[in-house]
Model the fold of this input.
Amino acid sequence: MNFEFSEEQVMIKDSVARFVRDEYDFDTRHKIIQSEEGFSRDFWAMFAELGWLSVPFAEEYGGFGGSVEDIVAMMEELGKGIVVEPYVSTVVIFGGLLSASSNEALKSAYIPKIIEGSCLGSFAFLERQSRFELSDIATTATQNAEGYAISGEKTVVFNGATADSLIVAARTSGGQFDREGVSLFLVDVTAAGISANSYKTMDGQTAATINFNDVQVSASQLLGEAGQGMDIVDQVMPEILMALSAEALGIMTTLNSITVDYSKTRQQFGTPISSFQALQHRMVDTFMGCEQTKSLLYRGLCDASEVAANPASGSLELQKSVHALKATVAKYGKLIGEEAIQIHGGIGITDELNIGHYVKRLMTINVTFGNGDFHQKKFNQLSYSSR
Amino acid sequence: MDINFSAQDLEFRDEVRAFFASEYDANVVQGLASSDGLVYKQAIVNWQKKLHAKGWIAPGWPKEYGGTGWSVTQKFIYETERGAAGVPDVVPFGLKMVAPVIYTFGNEQQKAKFLPRILSSEDWWCQGYSEPGAGSDLAALSTSAEYAGDNYIVNGRKIWTTYAQFSDWIFCLVRTSKDVRKQQGISFLLIDMNTPGVSVKPIPTIDGKHSLNEVLFEDALVPRENLIGEQDKGWTYAKALLAHERTGMAEVADSKRMLSNLKQRAAAEVNGGQPMIDDPVFQMRLSDIEMELMALEYTELRVFASMAAGGMPGPESSLLKIKGTEISQSIHELQLQLAAYYGGALQGDLSNQQLGHEFASEARKSYMYGRAATIYGGSNEVQRNVIAKAVLGL
Done:
């Protein structure tokens, strides 16, 4: 039994950490956010050069053949820098769904482009009414002679306006809430009938509302079987949630260490405020919250490798661990963010200090693919029943 | 990252599991549930003798004194299986508290005299640390041992002494020098409970039981040969023991078993025709606990893995006691909540059947006595002070 990252994983983790430390300081990040696209194409090209964009993809498509553990190792470091480049959207989510699909032609065409940095992707799933239920989909894909015509509106599409390609969840059959009947299509944003309204989000990133007005796609753009799209989403979701949680863990660790350091230098009543027991115990609670979150992340990783090694055993334990993880990220993320601001005092609510920016990214991660209450309820449904 | 045990370790796990399944039988369970103190003590002694016969009574001891010679992994597996089987830990005062002090700091004569009788459960020990004026600030203790001739003359009061009423011996921290820094004038003394001048007064607790006592020393003569190590060095010995003790306090396996019992009970308790386990609010309370416990299980595994690799427990170990006790208390609390009205019943001679409720009485007692968990072994506030200083450098 061991909970160490492998030598290879430590190398890539260190290289991300070096990037954040040497090239991604607060002012650099601020300038990137203010730029028109809201992220740096130069850094993206650099990520490609360093091989970071290839990590989770199979070797046959030019990937590194890594696992979710490799992604987690990197994401924790990206979190420490609140890096806004669309790694999660493009590599983890768009790339993850694509990898999990059975459409070899699409995989061969798109994965190499992701790896070389020439394809940015996003997952268009959310609609105005759907909140956290992924299968609540009213957007339709109607079959016709040339394939399918997609119509509907997708909201809060992360990095939607800068993406080159989208994976769109649309309904090919069934009612609005049915799990069956959801299909995933890979659509290039240049397709006729697509229009996007982009806006900035509080975490320094961007999102878009995207309209699909009779967008014609061919059947070869289907990620898997028609109507079975939720199988792919469910398969990839644990990885997505662990990647986001690892990013959150990096943020939580950073908030704690900045706050502890600050308390040692800030003097009031003639003494550092770190000497006050009322504050010490709060910082101990945030430390424990961070360690507990890390433990659940590792639990998820161990369950995931068990599922990979032994698929017949099913994924119930993994699902429970990942719901518990995301709920715990919400719980302790909130505690750690709020305590960081409180212990900093007035300066903690200023825009000039980095604290608030870390907190805002944590808040965004909290609602992404379900907030704490949502995941706790899912956990309950899997865990408790009198029957 | 790898969570799996080796084939040999799995074999060992099966052996331990099989032993508990066959030996921890209904007789033992019944004796341990007795409200008659002496029946209870005899049941524990019988159980510990079984463990001794198997050679498993003291996994923490070095092999030369009667330990098992197990690896860190085997010890971890043993503890996990014990908790999962609902088998209580051995009474710690002799086997886990005084014995390590004796074999580490005692002389050959003391080792030969005391260790075998601790292993065989012939001698029962209790702990004389806390005093009315020395709780969290233990070094403020004032029980005095004055050196005279070949004896110490001991005067003072020890408090919260678990099982003093059953004990043959007590190990005490006593003050032997007054005009030095308070930690420096303390000695570690072993005292025969039958010594004239030693008396025990029960302290009834809010669970309605008697396990705690006050122990009085009035001019009790203790032979010098009962001093461990050097005079005035007792604080060092006691501290070495405390560090040794902290990692064993998460009690994850015990809490997992309690939680699983709680879930079964919640499936049987009904409100308005709906089993409590299907009640969405109750489910939230349950998962608040279960998710913390799932995390703590891996926190404990992380500590264990670093120790098995030969390292020292990292900073995460310090939170085991805090989180472990908070979790066990919240399980007790939810169990009492589940018992609803019955949780308040003092049923006297009524059986569970007559009262109309199966676990209410147990739930009340566990909740009440369970409040002690965040107080003993260094209160959780003191533990937070330790983390603040040692881990966060505040």
